Amino acid sequence: MVKRVVITGLGVISPVGIGQDEFWQNLIAGKSGVGPVTRFDVSEMPTKIAAEVNDFDPSLYLDRKEARRMDRFAQFAVAAAKLAVQDAKLELEPEDKDRVGVVLGCGIGGVGTFEDQKETLMNRGPGRVSPFFVPMLISNMAAGHISINMGLHGVSNTVVTACASATNAVGEGLRLLQHGDLDVCLTGGTEAPLTPLAFAGFCAAKAMSTRNDEPTLASRPFDKERDGFVMGEGAGILVLETLDHALARKAHIYAEVVGYGSSCDAYHMTAVAPGGVGAAKAMRNAINDAGLQPQDISYINAHGTSTDLNDTNETAAIKSVFGPNAKNLAISSTKSMTGHLMGASGAIELVACAKAVENDIVPPTINLTTPDPECDLDYVPNEARKMSVKATMSNSFGFGGHNACVVLQKYE
Q: How far, in Å, CA of 32 to CA of 339, rounded?
């Protein structure tokens, strides 16, 4: 028998707040986390803005020696996991730790460590390269560190599907719980891509906004004046449990996870398939998996990157799935505030969906002042909206044509 699965804990490290309360309040207030890049020199780069996590102190979550042996993306993940477990009031010691697992998404991994150690190699020689270089670099180490730190012996996996990574990870965590492999799963995603090399790569691809003089206005999904995405960093971790397990310990339930869909465009390395046909297939798969009809969905947290191709094709995909009802949907892109957290984006966006279901409030798409005629749906412009949110879907689409969607609904 397929088990029901619920969300009982939320942990966030983001450019608009650390901890789910600060994160959610700033989303609802329409606060942007975008500003000038402070971590490295961008004077010779066309883009000089990003959504940085400025107040993160790893020593609040990790032993200092331990933290030094972890890349920033792994530090984010462990911190968010601890916040999520604390929020869930989940006491791990009494649990059967063989039945508590971790499934994380990460698109890039320890690119900061890679750059640092390449400099060491070139300037100081191979003998000075850190013995921790490889363990700090590899993408799976965030999940590994969470499992090690918390003594969890269940499944510990990492999904790498570019910007769909975290949403795919939550979907795979859902399956493990539904089919009885785990009782509890810590799932979501993490990313720390704000490094000179990664930043320069996206600049070279001409993918990022150059609205450097107005950073807080730069990420503007679905707006006619958008000129590219804004890179961000951070992590989101959700505690998923089987319903029976959550009820037995009288846990607070934010929402029920009811559907997961995935697909591949099989079209191009970076470009979206015309009309968003692959994205539409993933959305249909998720709605069907949930046992719902398109008209049951109240709110979509869009991938909404603030790039021309994504926003128009995602709009087309929504129209193809929802038909005439697309006009009645509330849709927003929280990337307008957080920037694009790459492989972690789907995780913090699912946190936003869970909070929307819990509170019947939909966060806005800020900076939407000049609507694109090709993006003609209701994107909840500029102000949060109080409304009934019975079921919601989060969309994530990544390079390589990876598409992933997860559906949440109110627990009843």
A: 8
